[in-house]
Amino acid sequence: MTIKNSPAEMADESRPVALTINGLAVSAQEGMTVVEAAWHGGVPRLTGVGCMEGVCGSCRIMLRRGDIVSVGLACQTFVENGAEVIFLPPASAPRHHYELSDFKDGWDIHARFQDIFPEAARCRHCHGCNVSCPKGISVEEGVMQASAGRFRDAGEIFFECVMCELCDGACPELIAPAHVGLFSRRVTAHFHLRPPNLIHRLEELRQDKLDKSVSYIDDGDD
Ligand code: SF4
Ligand code: SF4
Fold first, then answer.
1. pTM
2. Among 62, 81, 101, 184, which residue has the fewest nearby CB atoms (within 10 Å)?
3. Which fold, 100-191?
4. Architecture field, domain 7-87
5. Is the CB–ligand 1 distance for residue 162 below 6 Å?
6. Using a 6 Å cutoff on CB, does residue 124 contact ligand 2?
7. Within 10 Å of residue 201's Cβ, how many Cβ atoms?
8. Which numbered atom of ligand 2 lies nearest the CA of 177?
9. Any idea which ligand is nearest the CA of 147?
10. Residue 170 Cβ contacting ligand 2 at under 6 Å
């Protein structure tokens, strides 16, 4: 028996799927992702493909199936008959500029946030950001928490964010939710203590007290 490892290999014996990618007709196989179909179909791709595991957020696409238009990541989206796919260009340069070293202290964060992201207060709760997020993040809730000055909570909500910025493109108020999330994660890390076990291990290392016979890698057995 032949063992098939990749989705493309597993797709070999599946049904054919016809779609268009960047305006080119592509014949793919059921089970392929859009990136695999693009390669299989000879669609030239120089940018917009990275990790292939939904982590780098580079392969942003817009997808139309019948009357339904959505966005997603090409490496996590499977081909469908009749779909029209467009690879989106890289997100534009961020409009919000700040240096954390300029912040006086933690008391300064909320006022700075309101200066840097004045649009965040205008969220109209349209859910566009939630619908566009390929990671299923409650983006709108994260923006609300940040607007209320709860940056640790906002940072946790955006923990899985891959900065694809699809939510930014969906926001009618130009709030740039992805950057609200990034700001929240940055200030949380900058102004709060690191995890206590990490601090403890680093101190053991500094004092050369780390027991090198013990594996500190979680093997997932417990
Ligand atoms: S929150 Fe925005 S930038 Fe982050 S993964 Fe979701 S859509 Fe992408
Ligand atoms: S897309 Fe923009 S306006 Fe709509 S809910 Fe999200 S942050 Fe608010």
1. 0.82
2. 101
3. Fumarate Reductase Iron-sulfur Protein; Chain B, domain 2 (1.10.1060)
4. Roll (3.10)
5. yes
6. yes
7. 13
8. 7
9. 2
10. yes
The domain limits of the chain are 7-87, 100-191
- The β-bridge partners of 26 are 19
Where does the pLDDT of residue 222 fall: very low under 50, low under 70, confident under 90, or very high at 90 and above? very low
Is residue 71 lining ligand 1, measured as CB closer than 6 Å? Answer: no
CA of 81 to the centre of ligand 2 (A): 31
Q: Quick one: pLDDT at residue 8? A: 53
> Ligand 1 centre and the CA of 178: distance in Å?
6
What ligand 1 atom has the least distance to the C-alpha of 57? 8
What's the rounded mean pLDDT across residues 3-7?
48
Residue 20 token pair: 């268009």
